Amino acid sequence: MVDLRGQYEKIKEEVDAAILNVIESTAFIKGPEVQGLENELQEYLSVKHVITCGNGTDALQISLMALDLKPGDEVITTSFTFIATVEVISILGLIPVMVDIDPDTFNINPEEIAKAITEKTKAIIPVHLYGQCADMEAIMNIARENNLHVIEDTAQAISADYTFTDGSTKKAGTIGTIGCTSFFPSKNLGCYGDGGAIFTNDDVLAEKLRIVANHGMRVKYYHDVIGVNSRLDNLQAAVLRIKLRDLDNYKKARNEAANYYDNAFKSVEQIKTPMRHPNSDHAFHQYTLQIEGGGRDDLKEYLASKDVPAMIYYPVPLHKQKAFRNSNYTEPVLPITDLLTEKVISLPMHTELTEEQLKYISDSVHEFFNN
Ligand SMILES: *Cc1c(COP(=O)(O)O)cnc(C)c1O
Asked: Domain residues for 15?
């Protein structure tokens, strides 16, 4: 599904030197690489504050902690995402309210958000799934009208641009109150271990986020709030600074692969290729097809027999996961989420796909439907 080795080979000299440099400096935690990365990300994203942390899940948890939500407060989000998004809501004793998605973009449906708002609603967590932004203009309008915080989960969409109806653009993760991303190796900006970051334009919130991520302390050994220990290390930051320079090229390479697939599948009736939303470009963390008329699982098996990896993101939507079942849980009715769970399949998508590989993969898909 990804080719991290191929990508590494291209930047090997720079990466190896940077890693050695960190080792020789013995500044492993809180060093110049982390500071440098935070500054460079601020510039790249045009955002005032970047707070790096241990991973994307921590980024989400720290964000919710910094917003001072109380147990029982409700957070509206999507069920069609990775577990981390909803897990952190539950861990903090908050109530996840999962609503349905748009059938074309896989992203949370703003109309469903509006319907789910109650007195207890305090925040919305849209996820920019597969690399394309949720309908942020509508979401921000709803948030403003109802005085809600918005935490963007942009773990899959760093580098995507969102365009508002007035023509202005912002980077994914810089539109809401807070944005959260992951630097897990297979993400679009991935390090060589775990890592994450939080974005905000709010000075007061930025300070709180830093304190929460650092054991609740502003001054060493004086703890003002209950926090966590979550930090990015200098080795990872050194790798990320090198890859950040290539991030726009990575997005371009992914888009070229996506365009190839789009073209290749135009003629296949049973395949619906990913919709390109007019307000968001696509970072193509995943290239995800919808297979009409059943046969999705057979296609996956056929591709496996041809040594083509394919994945289902995600095989069980979160609202149906055992982990959320407790005596207080009422399973929401999410027909679009349920339907898409049966239809989606993601093909190999990364920065190193060659035309030969793309041809082999799409030919294999064609063969399945022609047989
Ligand atoms: C990967 C991912 C996360 C979690 O990131 P980690 O760094 O693995 O903790 C959260 N949300 C989404 C949508 C993700 O894809």
From this structure: 4-244
